[in-house]
Amino acid sequence: MLRIALDTAGDIPSDWVNEYDVNMIPINIHFGEQTFYQGVDLDNEGFYKLVDETGVIPKTSQPTPQQFVDFYRQIAEPGDSILSIHVTSKLSGTYASAEIAARDLEGEYNVFPVDSAAGSAAQGFMAKEARQMERAGSPIEAILDRLKSISKYIEVILTLDTLDYARMSGRVGTMQAAMASLLNVKPIVMLSDGFLEMSDKVRTRSKSLEQVINLIKDRIGDGLANVAVVHARDPKAGEALMKKVRNVLNCNSLILTELSIGIAANLGPGTVGIVAYPIEQE
Fold first, then answer.
1. Please, is 77 exposed, middle or buried when counting C-beta atoms within 10 Å of its C-beta (0-12, 13-18, 19+)?
2. What is the CATH number of domain 2-27+62-152?
3. Contact 154, 173 (CB under 8 A)
4. 11 and 260 in contact (C-beta within 8 Å)?
5. 190-214 residue pLDDT tens
6. In CATH, what number does 155-278 get?
């Protein structure tokens, strides 16, 4: 039996969780002395309300190896295989925790940790493809090869609406040194080799959304692609971006998802962007 697991830095439509039998391990969210677990005792709107009420942006941390051990034992039976897909190891220790747990459980479960080299909807797409391949009879080796290929070609391009969260989080590489001079612009953030880097800056929201589409188009081209529009507490912007995406990209699958707390805590509400990869890869 193949179990599929994601951490909650991954964004996946709620109906996919059931349709593709995906298990979610929550990241830890720290508000002062309180610790919450995303999707268990704190949802996205609850998170934003806490920030609004307290004026404090929480810290997030990866599940510990012991949390992974407990989680794997909860979702699987001895002898099962577990495909565990996680947010880029360049920005989080989640993948490392999964690796430690996999070694601790060797002989009890066959755990295959996967570094998505990305996050957000990239993980959701990986979980979907993995389950589809498993149901079609593909061996785990072929599934792992496919996920590695997706991670190589995935594109993540976002635009931020506020710089407060990014300034405090320290998760956006080159943004820090330039922050003081960027307070009146909308930065474009791209995933590069597993890191978030500022690639451009524009003066208005509309121009930033246009630039996100142009950048994705340049990288994806005209081939068939799986595409997700992602947003943080801004569904209207997400829906507007989806309409434009339909006219520009050749979408095999197009979904709209809300950015997880783990990502929103670092980039802030109003963040919107595109996660995409070509179906056929060289």
1. exposed
2. 3.40.50.10440
3. no
4. yes
5. 988 888 777 777 778 889 999 999 9
6. 3.30.1180.10
